[in-house]
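Posted in: Structural Biology > Protein-Ligand Complexes

Title: Requesting predicted complex, magnesium ion in pocket

I'd be grateful if someone could produce the 3D structure tokens for the following input. Sequence and ligand are given below.
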Amino acid sequence: MTSHRNDVRNVAIIAHVDHGKTTLVDALLQIAGAFRRGEVVNERALDSGDLERERGITITSKPTALTHKDVRIHIVDTPGHADFGGEVERVLNMVDAVLLVVDAWEGPMPQTRFVTQKAIELGLKLILVVNKIDRVGCNPHKTVDDTFDLVASLDASEQQLDFPVVFCSARERYAKRDPDGEPESMTLVLDTIVEHAPAPTVDDSAALAMWVSTLHYDSFLGYLAIGRIRSGKISPATRVALVRPEQDVAAPPTCVEVFRATKVLGFQGLRRFELGHAEAGDIVAIAGMETLQVGDTITSEAPELRRVFPRLAVDPPTMVMHFRVNDGPFAGKEGTWITSRKLRERLFREVRSNVALRVSDTESADEFEVCGRGELHLGVLIETMRREGYELCVSRPRVIFERLASGELQEPYERVVIHCDTPYTGAVIQELGSRMGELLAIDDAGPGRSKLELRVPTRALIGYRSELLTATRGTGVMATLFDGYGSYLGPMRSRSHGVQIVLEDGETFTYSLARLQERGELFVGPQINVYAGMILGTHVRDNDIIVNPCIQKKFTNVRAAGSDEKLFLTPPRVLALEQAMAFIADDELLEATPKSLRLRKRWLDHNVRKRFEKHQKLAGEGRSESTGEAADSG
Ligand SMILES: Nc1nc2c(ncn2[C@@H]2O[C@H](COP(=O)(O)OP(=O)(O)OP(=O)(O)O)[C@@H](O)[C@H]2O)c(=O)[nH]1
Ligand SMILES: [Mg+2]
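-- Reply #1 --
Done. Output follows.
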């Protein structure tokens, strides 16, 4: 028999990047008293990962819970950056409603559209939270109108269109029913959730079924499967089955293992606590299994009662990189995990929880193909691995092409929205125009600011983010959203300069660097160990040159006029991980170790490399485009 659980509400918080989701979670947990007394709580408390705190963005979706007026509200915080869209997709099946947060100053942005569309497709109830109403010059009324237009354009049901609205400043901790009205406490948001988010429907008679939406590894408890119990009940010590759907829909699902649930955990603020019992409608973590993958179902042990949920459907990746073992001369000096076996294990482990990522073996046992949603998605994975002690080499990211049945080649496009100071719009339009972008609209965005909307091939945007900052003197903010596949636009302008390649292994000296810096920008300073085939810096001309940065000044007894001039070195340009990824060309690699990022040629030996280049030249323009990618070097 189905009934409603009035004591529970399950909601996700979704929005464009930086619109204040995690800050809103802070505010709600605080007002509901979900933190322990005296607990030291950071700002954006749920962003607990090191990389999340350093970059100030949410990377993985996380559940938390609070109690308000005897109702347990489970809240799932999600990332807003487009590259982590897969994180939003995998958790929306846990909830019945979403708090759609929109910045009152910026209005709906590309990722607002993406996440709203996903929520609408799943039939979730929408609650609009217009945030940052404390900002001077914001326009809450227009934000509501624009959001309504957005929702209406997305095939929403009547019920979804009739969304309640709350205005708030999550940071200043107040909320309003009407932007021109008096500020109230943030409990207004909690009241709205209790009133408008549907109570979970549960079927008392059905057997246990929980769809695993998130997995977590705890060094004491092992794997934790986090998800919402859809039907049935579970308590610690119950024996249950872990079932996984097959790729082939017609094939029967596999029972991966039968295990005893060692722990059933609930959430409260930043903590987890043991539950004696949980039932349909609850979002919980279950421990006790040996292996786990997002999308698995935890269900009844009895085969005739087992249920299984379909494979998680998420949008496919658009970008590919090759990860390979570090075979440079410095391999193993700075990292702990360097073998291809370790690398392979780590990558395939990642796929279990990172649902938008695909990893496959290649012809070479030392190299793996890794596909993701964008530079940041892949960059965060590389950075995480470096911090865990891995050493690896990665190739330049490329977009994934598709070929239609008619034979036509297609490439991915992004819809791009750029806000910048008005004087720089010309430069931005010109640059993106040369990258085959199409200008769709240009608007005023407050005093002295403009908003540009463009459609640009994804390939042209690799590495563009940092260029935008330079071109707009730091005033440019870019948001992108995957806009589907379209016609392939042909080869694109590649790096306009060559590089300086190190001649032989050694240590760099100021004496030689001072001369080499006249030929281009250097990435390496003095007293640094370098190796043959490593990239020292750029070369102003379009060809690569081999240079020797390891020559030391010869000291003699004779003082020669002019030889004692002071040498001044410009500080080397230090590339951040994603900048380095975008900088390298097709025949180059980025060596990432826990301590260093080095750029290198794929073929380190100068003779081998020359032979390879000659071979490539002979194959020449005839280089087939059948891979879909060969002609592109971004
Ligand atoms: N003025 C103002 N700033 C806010 C408010 N809420 C959040 N912010 C600021 O906006 C920035 C982003 O806040 P977050 O809470 O990290 O935003 P988010 O939506 O979780 O971001 P992602 O998870 O990376 O998508 C932070 O600098 C906050 O301090 C608000 O109500 N008013
Ligand atoms: Mg966040």
